[in-house]
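Long-time lurker, first post. I've been practising inverse folding by hand and with some scripts of my own, and I keep getting stuck on stretches where the structure tokens seem ambiguous. Below is the full token string for one chain I'm working on. Before anyone asks, I'm not after the true native sequence, just a reasonable design that respects the backbone. If someone could post their per-position residues I'd love to compare against what I wrote down in my notebook.
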């Protein structure tokens, strides 16, 4: 049926607070065009798996450790195909996907980055060290960005951004918490709904054309 919601997979590696923001948005009815049908964690001890379990979401672990990246990506692709995934969300996912992989999903992979791209992004900028770099640079404003994933780390087209003030005496931990609460957890559900809605209308248009 064409009014079906887009099938979404969320890829995680850690605490899963961004996954939780998506699950909460779904529960609140704010994800009208997509449904989270799969969570893929890169580690068995990722707390994000507990969040998926509490939300009765299908969750699998595809480990990256002691595995060639091509083998990881082949395993991941097989699962995404089996579940007919239409949109992939990287939420605290600490792995750089290859050019070959991302090119299979043009404008169908989105990522949340804890800074205002093009600042403090690219290879090596993840987690706390993004916020430490912002503090070291003395910026007064930072924030978060949701963007499409392409072959350049944090280089894809920007979808949404939200600014967050840096406050006197901020540590990297305090700044990370403020950016997550005020920006990441707000932006990601909005961006996922926007992209899912656009995917669904494209699918509907192509079906209407076929009917002509
Ligand atoms: C967050 O800072 C997020 O921006 C980054 O990874 C951190 C942890 O995310 N990508 P989560 O709590 O695992 O969603």
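-- Answer (accepted) --
I ran through it position by position. Result:
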């Amino acid at each position: 049926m064409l009014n079906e919601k887009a099938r979404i997979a969320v890829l995680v590696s850690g605490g899963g607070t961004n996954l939780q923001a998506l699950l909460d948005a779904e529960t609140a009815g704010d994800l009208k065009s997509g449904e989270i049908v799969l969570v893929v964690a890169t580690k068995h001890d990722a707390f994000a798996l507990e969040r998926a379990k509490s939300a009765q979401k299908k969750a699998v672990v595809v480990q990256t450790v002691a595995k060639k990246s091509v083998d990881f990506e082949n395993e991941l692709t097989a699962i995404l195909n089996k579940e007919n995934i239409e949109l992939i969300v990287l939420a605290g996912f600490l792995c750089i996907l290859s050019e070959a992989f991302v090119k299979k999903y043009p404008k169908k992979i989105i990522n949340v980055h804890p800074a205002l791209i093009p600042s403090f992004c690219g290879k090596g900028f993840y987690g706390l060290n993004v916020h430490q770099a912002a503090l070291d640079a003395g910026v007064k404003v930072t924030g978060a960005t949701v963007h499409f994933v392409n072959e350049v780390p944090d280089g894809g087209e920007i979808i949404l951004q939200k600014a967050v003030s840096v406050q006197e005496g901020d540590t990297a931990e305090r700044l990370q918490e403020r950016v997550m609460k005020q920006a990441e957890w707000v932006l990601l559900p909005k961006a996922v709904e926007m992209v899912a809605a656009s995917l669904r209308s494209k699918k509907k248009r192509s079906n209407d054309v076929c009917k002509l």
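A couple of notes from the structure itself: The pocket of 5-O-phosphono-beta-D-ribofuranosylamine is lined by residues 12, 14-19, 48, 91-92, 112, 114, 127, 176, 180, 184 (CB under 6 Å). The beta strands are 6-12, 34-41, 59-61, 87-90, 109-113, 141-148, 158-165. Happy to go over any region you disagree with.
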